[in-house]
Structure formats: structure tokens, C-alpha cells
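REQUEST ID: PR-0412
SUBMITTED BY: lab tech R.K.
PRIORITY: routine
TASK: structure prediction, single protein chain
INPUT:
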Amino acid sequence: MQIGKLTNKELDEIILSNIKPFRDDVVLRPGIGIDCGGVKIGGEICMLSSDPITAASKDAGKLAVHVSCNDVAATGAEPIAMLVTMLIPPESTIEKIRELFEQMQMTAKELNVEIIGGHTEITDSVNKIVICSTVLGKAKEQKYLSAAGAQVGDSIVLTKFAAMEGTAIIASDLENEAKKALTDEELKRCRSLADRISVVKEGLIAAEIGASAMHDVTEGGVLQAVWELCRASECGAVINLDKIPILDETKKLCSALNIDPLRLISSGCMIISIKDGQNCVNEMHKNGIPASIVGKIKEGNIITVSDGNISPLIPQERDEIYKIIK
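STATUS: complete
OUTPUT:
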């Protein structure tokens, strides 16, 4: 099998089709593009998300916190607590384990999320450290969202820049290759993107101002996130590729490595479906968060537009990062 996530077809046929709902207190269930589960507890909803970090090494601790917190924030919930599982190959060092946990603790504290438990194990079942994080968040019963709520006529807003996480991973873990395309100062800026991976702030803002649906951008990049949101919401979209912001450093790296930045892992970005897109952009800017309107929700299929050329959007089965990360 290919490295990376199961294809959407495999996920649907093997996993999702075999999950049968039977509890009334479960309010958000799994699906393509839906990364959280939700459970009703009293008058609030507990949102939960779990993710592994497998494609990064130097910033794995930071990313382990951000990716699950981002999923929870995409429901409009506030992340509050976290469980961490670390699977560690025998050749690892105590120093490396300490470094990664210190990254996790520092990042979690910055987000006001408490690490409350987990599991640590040395095992020859892995050949590098694998970190799995599970984050719990809370939302008011009537205020939570999912990727399934997009409405025809909504604007599609993208926060920050495409391929942020992929850019940071390449600059940190493939330094020799990155140096062929970037100056030392550009490399430094790329590595610093690992400190901008959180979308918790924009998720809470968007939920407060009336977002219909949100989806944080992870494997498969911006275009896959749009496809997943539309699949979950049973709608179409038109995406203006020329409006999607990409940093110059990202363009240089992706050109040198012959990969597509719009299909590169992109934690740090949020796709927001909202009626008043300009108000959303304005609110993000007030809070120091770059944001752009990149498309619109419509009926029918998903299409992309660039330089007047129209193309159907095909779902991505494998992130571009796996072309270069071994």
C-alpha cells in the first residue's frame, strides 16, 4: 500500500460504512472531511479529535499539539485538555524524548490546553518516534459546527497561506535540498512557520461571527480541504486558484522540488464557509490574521478557475509531502 492516509474510497468502504450509530448522546459522527467526534454532556458538547505526527521530526512536538487542537477549533469549540501517546524506537535517546515533550508542553501552555495523560512506550514496532495526540474541547450545545454545514451562496475564506506546514517541514527536515532554493534568511522564515500552525484563534472568531462550516487544512492541502468540506456538505464550489495566497518562499521550494503547494500539507490554514465573507476577512485582519476570499459555495460540482481556465477539482489521494519525505 502507498504511504499516507487511506484513500477516501478505502476509508468509506472499510471504516466509515462499518460504524453504526446507536447512542443519542453522540451528536457529531465521523465522515469524509469530519475530523472530530462530539458527545453531549449536560448542556455542553465535548469535542474530541485524535491525530498522529509521522512526517515531521524536528518540530513533531509542536505539530502534535496543533493538529488536534486545530480539528477541535474547526467545530467552534475551545480546546481544553490533551492526551499524548509516544511510541519510541529503541535507538532513540532520552534527550530527544525530553526535547519533544518540552515542545508539547510549551505549545499546549501557549494554547491554554493542559496535558492530562497518555502513554509512552519504547518499541521496535516503529523506526522513528510517532506521537499521537487526542484533544478534548468544549462548545455550547447550540453553537458547535462541523464541515457538513456549508450553505449554497456562502463565501469561502482561507486564513493565512497555503502549504505553511509543508514549507516548515521541508525547511527543517530537508535542509540540504531547501538550501538549493532558498537563502539562509528565507530558510529561517520558513522554519518559523512552525510557530504559526495554530488555527484555534480564527476558529473561535469565525464561529462567533456566524460561520456555517469550517475545515482546517491538513494532508492534501488547500484543494483537498475544499473537496472534503464540499463532500461533507453535499455541495459544490468554485475556487479561484489565483486568489489563494502562497508565500514566495513556498513557491520557490515547491518549484525546486516539483510539488504542488495547493496539495501540500497545510496546517495553519482554515477553510471557512460563511455568508458574509468580507466581514469574516475584516474580523480576521482586526485580530492580526491574514485572510482572503478564495471562492464560493454553489450547487453541483467543484470547479477551479485560473487565468480564465475552468477545471473540475479531483480529490487528492496522497499528499505531496510523501513524494519527498522518506
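NOTES: The chain has a mean pLDDT of 93.
REVIEWED BY: pending
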